[in-house]
Amino acid sequence: MVDVVRVMEALAEQGVTVLFKADAERMRDGVRPWTFVANGAPFHEDLLVRTDAASVEACLKICLPQLRDRGLIIPE
User: Fold this and answer.
1) Is 36:50 a contact under the CB 8 Å cutoff?
2) What sign does the CA torsion over 50, 51, 55, 59 have?
3) pTM of the model
């Protein structure tokens, strides 16, 4: 399992702002309550990595490859 704190710290050290959000209303409705957003200095043209998913793990599974593809170093 990915250490979320290590991932967030590694991204922040590279100038990326990271947000994880759990939405109570969406959780109640059973609709992808977790949101992951990453943006910041490494991105050009205001590019942003974002997803809504059913779990923290699902957010990371979707977003971490995108961040790695942009050259960011992320711990396993």
Assistant:
1) yes
2) negative
3) 0.86
